[in-house]
Structure prediction request, 92 residues.
Amino acid sequence: MIIITKSEIIELIWNKNNKTYTKKDIKYIINSFVEEIQNCIRNDKKVKISGLGTFSTYSKNVYIEKTLDTEEVTIVPNVKCINFKASNQLRV
Prediction:
């Protein structure tokens, strides 16, 4: 598996568009894009990006965590989780 970082994505976009946009412009656009997705997800909105997929949230039920060493029981409250479903165009 190859991992690509946000700064590498910015570099790739800039290499293809360096005559039109500055690297600073591209960095601003990418950071704004990511920030908007984060804000929507925090506010329980579904984010659908055509050709990429859909981000949504769901609540995980309460569960009990038991430590075997000390036999301590901890109740973990509902947790908000993020789900991503890839679009059909993205699936391999």
User: Anything to note?
Assistant: The CA atoms of residues 6 and 88 lie 24 Å apart. The helical segments are 6-17, 23-42.
